[in-house]
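Subject: Interface between my chains keeps coming out wrong

I've been trying for a while to get a sensible model of this assembly. When I model each chain on its own everything looks fine, but I need the whole thing in one frame so I can look at the contacts. Pasting all components below, labels as-is. Any help appreciated, I'm running out of ideas.
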Amino acid sequence: MYVLYAIISLTGLGLLLGLLLGVAGKYLKVESNPVVDEIEALMPGSQCGQCGFPGCRPAAEALAEGTAPATLCPPGGSALAEQIAALLGMELDLKDVQEPEALVARVSESTCTGCTRCFKVCPTDAIVGAPKQIHAVVADACIACKRCVEVCPTECLQMHPIEVTLRNWRWAKPRAAVLGELPC
Amino acid sequence: MITYHKPASGAHVGANKSVSQIMGQVMLAITPATAFGLVCFGWPALFLFLITVASAVLFEALCIRLKGRPAKPVIMDGSALLTGWLLAMTLPPWAPWWIGVTGSGLAIILGKQVYGGLGQNLFNPAMLARVALLISFPIEMTTWANVSPLFFAHSPSFAESWQITFSGLQNLDAYTGATTLGYIKTEFSQNHILPDILQDYSALQNFIGWTRGSLGETSALLLGLGGVWLMRQNIIQWQIPVSLLATVAVLSGIFHLLDSNHYVSPFLHLNSGALMCVAFFIATDYVTSPNTSAGQCVFGVGCGLLIFVIRTWGAYPEGAGFAVLLMNSATPLIDYYIKPRIYGRDRQGKPLEIPKP
Amino acid sequence: MLNGLSWLKPPRIRGGVHAEERKANTATQAIVSNFPLPKKLYIPLQQHVGKPAEPLIRVGETVLKGQLLAYSQGMISAPVHAPSSGTIVDVNDYPAPHPSALPIRMIVLETDGKDQWLELPEIGDPFQLSPENISLRVGAAGIVGLGGATFPTAVKLNMGRENHIDTLIINGAECEPYLSCDDRQMQERSEQIIDGVRLMLHGMETHHAVVAIEDNKTNAFYAMAAAARHFPAIKVMQIPTRYPMGWDRQLIRYVTGREVPVGCRSSEIGVTIHNVGTAFATHKAIRHGQPLVSRVITVSGGAVGKPMNVEVPLGTLIAELFAFCGVDSTQTARIVMGGPMMGDSLPHTGLPTVKATSGVLALTQAELKSTDEQPCIRCASCLTVCPAGLRPVDMANHIKANQLDAAVDIGLKDCISCGCCSYICPSNIPLVQYFKYASGEVAARQQAQHKSEQTKKLMAARQMRLERIAQQQLEEEQARIAAKKERERLQAEQETAAS
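Reply #2:
Try treating it as a single job with all components included. I did that and got this:
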């Protein structure tokens, strides 16, 4: 008899809770995953597509679903991978992450025809100029998306590594830590 | 123009104290006590000592080779040698050879290398091995040889010694007995009182180390001298030894004053068992003790308290090994809660307030 | 006001190391003043904290010693003057005295050998000048903190006036090993330094100064005490010899018992600190009108044949300094600018000396700390010696594991790079380099973060603009269509009216 009571009460409890969950799921549904927004806020936002997704938002969605690795974003490098992994509580293997080479677009003044095609495609308005005038790149605003390089008819726009100066020179990580020779 | 090199940051000069030098100085500090132990307990002790130390080094080399790295530079830092040496000091001097080998294996492999090698282990390797051996092989680990110095008439000959270490001697009981602490514990269980128990006790012999006990732990005098020398050399700090010994002395002093029939005097506590060795050379192990002075004091007090409690009310006559291991496990916690105050900040890490004139 | 009971609680010295001094070979000889004038001087436009100076001379111009070459721009900056007379031959990028030796703007002066001073203004009693005038003149003389911080001195004097400083501390600790330029200056130029201190007090409207000298420099102490005996406002005191006693905040705590809160300047708690060399430069600037064009530099180290303190014009190449002091280049394993604890290595000797150069060391391999990094044994020596109360071992472990945020959380930004931890570490872990690397990386990440935010703003703005343009075009199109329809309607009406 007691067994029966137990079975009945537990079954009842299960059904009730299941119903509650179902109702909650229906009425309290969140349209977009808030984690996706958080991830998207971390990402470069240049919609470059180097990750294989059509933009930063789809990439963030894939990350939130767990179908993409934290290291998917080449321009973000290891810094971004760490932030994403921390946000999602993922395991992180930084071995294969290549630090993005810092690039900046530069106009070769001798071959620029002032065709204005480049500054029409620049997503951050980093190229200034006027028709028939030589264009110039505002280096601080350039995000190295390379779109201008693709449209330039005279190949006068080229990507160059950002020059190391006294302002952006940094101390290197000590050798032993880089090689992973020592436990930490 | 002088040749190019990679940018190097300060300090360009350094203190002349390397890891191997630190290890070397600790070994120098325990040499007198060890030598005294070897003389007291003769050839078997020497065999056991050599076997333990050699196997510790071999196990270390093996582990490093398994990691695919050259073993020589790691061996040269002296840490495996020191671990083996300290372990040997804590073993019964006439223990069979396999106790030494097993102990070294436990210490180096289980106590150190599985954590990732030097500096990574949570527990003191020598104490871990000692406690593991004590629990696994209680008979071998509590068979204490009489003091039988080399070349004395009643001491075992070289051949007998060989047998003691490598194949076991039949009439071993004739050569062995209980340690002071063990004897007291047994007598207490038969409801005897201290003044009767200690009729034959010689304070001086215990102080010098002319008594049954572990290979290198008997001489409170020589261990203390070695420890003080290490402090003078600035290899170890005073906090752990002083707080540990003071705790044991104060606690035993209080209880001894209250009831001198059932509680051992501070002097006997300090002179007996592993206390001196542990206070100066085991508890002060850099890797497994807290980083700050205050934390070290807490650690020392904790060790002392546990040692006293286990000795007085526990089942084992000596609790130093257990005490150190328990406090080792508390070290990360102590380091988490006791941190130095950063200049210009309060203890919580907030910037200080500008004082109003 | 000093707390009347502060003597009850003696200020503690925290951490620090007693490094082997190695000062004797330079501290016992007089400052060498007959350094042969170099043929060319390379004068960086930035030798100070803040904005670089702006050149106002042209290539080909002849200048006299002390003539203004570049003026300061902005609130925190300092001008640069000609260290000798001659012709300007170039204003261009040359390797900087920095571990990277990357180029910065420099003025190249070809000396004419006459070393002819500009006509200097006649100066009466400087104590009749207003305090503002003192700091103006100090600023115009291009004086910056000569202890190595190179913060413009005039700015500090102004801050002192604004904050009602009660104690001016003159830093004569010179705690770095090898260096003895301050020691020699205090021995040989004590009168001038004390005069400089009095001028600084006047400029800051402060009435109390303490000259703090480490107790291993007894000769300097006696000389300074004798020079200060007639001035009750200036107290000369000995402080324990322990690196980094010359860290301003350590010295402030020792002398006044006050601790500078994180994120504050010392002037906010009523203390300002200047170096003895700065006091001497102030004396020269106010009493003689001479701008800062030369400084005393310690040249020492195992590879130096004739170690010495030598006064050289700013912009002298280290190569010429080394040639004069007989440096054996085959023995030199590392060139260090500054002291061996905090100084940085230099890649070669073709770099100029600047206002910050207190010493140049040519160290042999035997003097260097081993670079063979071994596992940490948690000996906690680094905690014990850290004057800032940090946990270098934990910070380094976080950095090794790429957990930079964790390192920042436990105090990375409070590290002063004093080098005590690296000095003491038995495992030869380059702790300071870990911290410098991590600080740079954290700064770079913050910049990247900032840029990414800016990028998003720019993209949003562009998007809005494109939409607006599209909207406009749409409206124009609609207007055009509407107008066309209207025209057609009118035309149709006219046609119907006509027919």
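Reply #3:
Confirming on my end. Chain B touches chain C through 45 residues (CB under 8 Å).
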